[in-house]
TrEMBL record, chains A, B:
This is Aminodeoxychorismate lyase. GO terms for molecular function: 4-amino-4-deoxychorismate lyase activity. It comes from Pseudomonas lalucatii. Homodimer. Pathway: Cofactor biosynthesis; tetrahydrofolate biosynthesis; 4-aminobenzoate from chorismate: step 2/2. Belongs to the class-IV pyridoxal-phosphate-dependent aminotransferase family.
Length: 271, 271
């Protein structure tokens, strides 16, 4: 499978990379169609914010060019971009000057059943809670053990995604998706300033919904509010939008507002 | 530098390793003297507990033999053992069956100034707080961005270690050490069931102190209790014990009980 390290074909990485040692880095998972990366500007913007917050040097222009060249070569699939703080000596102290290492890994698009998008999905209620860490909240960093534990909670095919709460019981997101709900015509999604990953599709749908004149709110949500929603859906930058049909014994129909945003997401990913 | 992957010399790792992708794994940092790993049983015990909690398969006997052979070859220095969940497809779901990958990295012993042990150290008061995640608390897992951020808070040589609190303000540990204090002859260290790394030297010193007839308590500690302590020290499995002399404007002497435990730690590491 296609993979580059610092712009050159390579399948192997130094065992002393700090991405391995500490999860000291960031990643993006980017849909590629017709040789072009979807939602490129949003992926680059999130990465730039992550680099500021982790104090990782970023050469944005050369990274963009590299991503474009990689996508061209990949053609169709998923480009996973990983930035790490490069090789480390022993110890947590960030090396000075820091060297950012770039990895690009190509793969096929995930083979999700088409029913997920068409008929909607059931959510598994994960027992794993997200810890509150405002310094890392929102970032797609390499410390993802909570997601590994949560995704390990179910093996059946009935549940396409899981619902994750924070330690205080707030509704935050899916294991690999963000969550939205509609209530009385207003689009709602969780505030991610304490935990969670601020997905690029989430950002894009919020922007598009506002453009369409929909009322949008980003704030704390509790389980009662989720269960009282008129429509619920999950989203990410690979599959677009999945309507949510069931959580435990609560059923939802696939609503018209969800379908509207799903069509927008589909257009964005068929770039 | 000496490094093995799954028992064979190798300096390079698959870019698709889940240790890199998600920090999906554990590590131990083991002092090696005269070809022998110090505190081996405690390192293996912590690793075994981590493997149970992360559901990583572990062949304990062959791992022990590999560590012994690696230490023999290393002679003097530090052996860093990393276990990861091996290569992943895309997605958080743990592969079934899981394959545990073993990495062993050799390096020199850290060159800490001898004054740290002899005269004691100053602690930097870290602003980075530890998030509460009971599912991961105590483990030495590969999700260590909090420590990277905390260690990045100071560059001066005045502070040899930092003090980390949890989000609620409890005193937990150092960035790469555990913290102990003595108050009225009782040895106290933080409860690590919400966050923190349960160090092998911490476990060993607790056991040895109990054998010596010292009263020991593992429980929540707040900053006032730390500041009111008679003696304070840090410990880990590489340097042993460092007396703490200062935190902000609070000064401590190097006390006799700290010296007693320091001597025990020194004996353990000169194995």
């Amino acid at each position: 499978m296609l993979s580059w390290i610092d712009g050159r074909p390579a399948e192997l990485l130094s065992v002393r990379d700090r991405g391995l040692a500490y999860g000291d880095g960031l990643f993006e998972t980017i849909a590629v169609s017709g040789g072009r990366p979807a939602l490129l500007e949003r992926h680059l913007a999130r990465l730039a914010e992550g680099c500021v917050r982790l104090q990782l040097p970023l050469e944005a222009t050369s990274l963009r060019n590299e991503l474009l060249a990689f996508s061209q070569q990949l053609g169709e699939g998923v480009a996973k971009l990983i930035l790490t703080r490069g090789d480390g000596l022993r110890g947590y102290a960030p090396p000075q000057p820091a060297m950012t290492r770039r990895l690009l890994l190509g793969g096929p698009k995930p083979a999700y059943p088409s029913q997920h998008a068409e008929q909607g999905v059931h959510l598994f209620p994960c027992a794993t809670r997200l810890a509150e860490q405002p310094l890392l909240a929102g970032l797609k960093h390499l410390n993802r053990l909570e997601q590994v534990l949560a995704r390990g909670e179910w093996q059946d095919d009935e549940h396409a995604e899981g619902l994750m709460l924070d330690a205080a019981g707030r509704v935050i997101e899916g294991v690999f998706s963000n969550l939205f709900l509609f209530k009385d015509g207003t689009l709602l999604t969780a505030d991610l300033s304490r935990c969670g990953v601020a997905g690029v599709m989430r950002a894009e749908l919020l922007a598009q919904a506002a453009t369409l004149g929909m009322a949008c709110e980003v704030r704390d949500l509790d389980l009662a509010e989720l269960l009282g929603a008129d429509e619920v859906f999950m989203c990410n930058s690979l599959y677009g939008v999945w309507p949510v049909r069931r959580l435990r014994d609560r059923d939802w129909p696939v609503g018209p507002l969800t379908r509207k945003l799903q069509a927008i997401a589909r257009d964005l990913l068929d770039c």
